Amino acid sequence: MIDETLRQVLDDEGRVTGTAPEIPDADLRALHRHMLKMRTLDQRMLSLQRQGRIGFYGLATGQEAAITGSAYPLRATDWIFPALRETGVSLWRGTTVQELVCQLIGNAGDVLIGRQMPMHFSDRKVNSVAWSSVIGTQLVHAMGAAWAAKIQKKDDVMVGYIGDGGTSSSDFHAALNFAAVKQAPVVFFCQNNQWAISVPLSEQTVSSSIAIKAAAYGMRGVRVDGNDLLAVIAVMREAVERARSGGGPTFVEALTFRMGGHSSSDDPTRYRDPELVKTWEKRDPVARFGAYLRGKGLLTDADVETWTAEIGEEISQAVTAAEAMPAPALETIFTDVYAKMPAQLETQMKYALALGAGTKFDGAFPL
Amino acid sequence: MPQMTMVQAITDALRVSLREDPRVVVLGEDVGKNGGVFRVTEGLQAEFGADRVADTPLAENGIIGGAIGMAMYGMRPVAEIQFVDFIYPAFDQIVSELAKLRWRSANQYSCPVVVRAPYGGGIRGGLYHSQSPEAYFCHTPGLQVVIPSTPADAKGLLLSAMTGEDPVIFLEPKRLYRSIKEDVPEGRYTTPIGKARTARAGEQLTVLAYGAMVPVSVEAADMAAERGWSVEVLDLRTLLPLDTEAVLESVRRTGRAVIVHEAPRTCGYGAELSATIAEHALTALQAPVLRVTGWDTPFPYTLEHTYLPDAKRVFAAIEHVMNF
Questions:
Q1: Regarding the domain with residue range A2-323, which homologous superfamily does it belong to in the CATH classification?
Q2: Residue B49 structural domain
Q3: Confidence band (pLDDT; 50, 70, 90) for A367?
Q4: How many C-beta atoms lie closer than 10 Å to residue B187's C-beta?
Q5: Which of A32, A53, A171, B202 is the most buried (most CB within 10 A)?
Q6: Residues 201-220, chain A: which have Cβ within 8 Å of B?
Q7: pLDDT in tens, A333-343
């Protein structure tokens, strides 16, 4: 039930050492382009953050294969319950760069109308659920939605994302236990990037792996090289198919490495040996998959050049358009607290709008 | 019309919903075969099956978080927390998730979950089977907080909660579960959320109460009547959103207010009521607004009767205000 062996298809140089999953050539190219897009976005958005044009950013650099590979086997009707580093899943499923940049800025064009800080993305059209910053909470929701799908006899699959730090949370325990007891069609996908801000995995758990924790719940647990796109796809495809066909939940531990800081606010040199980062540079997931594709004759330098230029242009246009958009209207603070605004809130809104319009109040307090 | 206790009325509301709406699912600890420790879900699993009336593992965060996921996916879950004293492991799921999902997703997602939980003292349940934590939830935008005080209201309010679009914390005064029996209409009817009820009409003073403190306040009002004082008792029924209009209408008319709750005094719901009256009806007041509440202590076991406000304590406050 638990396989702690690290599943691999490609070695660090991109040579096939395992069984590659069947993927059409066009998809293989699209997957590579997507990882390039994520990498480019990280570079450009971090630069915008450093210029003070967006407030916060969470890099996925080094984790592109885990993220993209987890998204590829899903159907459009499946749901994802993401955390900080899974925006790439939404992008793969149809969220646009423009939508993402608007969310990072928090303007009127933002799907979330500036209510959440950057990276706390959500997009109903791709079934990506809005998440909070409290770690682990989304796993229970993924379990609940999966349980509901089972009750309603629908064959949608839910994916709950978590990092290594989140596996210590109480919601992790509740989600895995309930999911196993109810045999809910959910996949728990853990990006073990080995750092929870400054706390290394060894301070998070002394289990021999994270995957082995699934054993305590009577759940299938697997380990995969998270920097090996093909291995992640293979493992995820099995887990999703198992869930969809009534085989119950799976816990996937994707071993990867956070190349940057926890976020744009974090300085990893305070707590992490730079030598360690260098060893992981050699295992770069994008270069590795690129080497594989080149070996198959599916990727050329010209492709990479064209794609990089196209992606760069798409981002530039998105930033220009997003920066021209106004801030959300004041009343957006008050809407959606409830489906229908209660009287008390309406009074507060009217007061806030009047203050915003510069109305002077003499005498009686208007509330 | 059948006579029902509050427990029977709540069971009836759940049964009506489970029959009419396939999206309704009841979940919680011991709600299945056992019918809940207070027997509120008695017979429901036998009638509707284990998928729709589901026992869960013992983890409140799993129950509420699971219900949130179910509701997002389109179901109408009613989650039972066995005693509201056990709700704190799910506090984060309620405050950070349940209450905020609609807003933080800009209305892309919502989670109309009803969280049912018995609350309050009077059954010799000790510290962890007696608390009244309603104020914690009233401080959370996005929630609705409902507390019935009669069987008929319990059914009507629960049916409203279960067909509404937003989450409801539905606190059931367990002390009144079986102590009152009254006519309860059969089938579906709803009692609107956000509307108070005049439990006893009066002209000289308004007692604001909810849940198990309503009958206590009515008893105190009867004592006052013997002294020739006409006291109104307003049963708030919904704490969030408060029926401000009903509260102010009554207090402006009577010119006096006493607030009763069994929860501790400091930052209790009475503070909100008192502030609302002070902001909007100060000039109508003929006396200070008084609060009769539980003490600012943990809930005692042996001396429970000295902790809970009773008619004597409420009457003492009425007397003080009337003689001011």
A1: Thiamin diphosphate (ThDP)-binding fold, Pyr/PP domains (3.40.50.970)
A2: 3-183
A3: low
A4: 9
A5: A171
A6: none
A7: 999 999 999 99
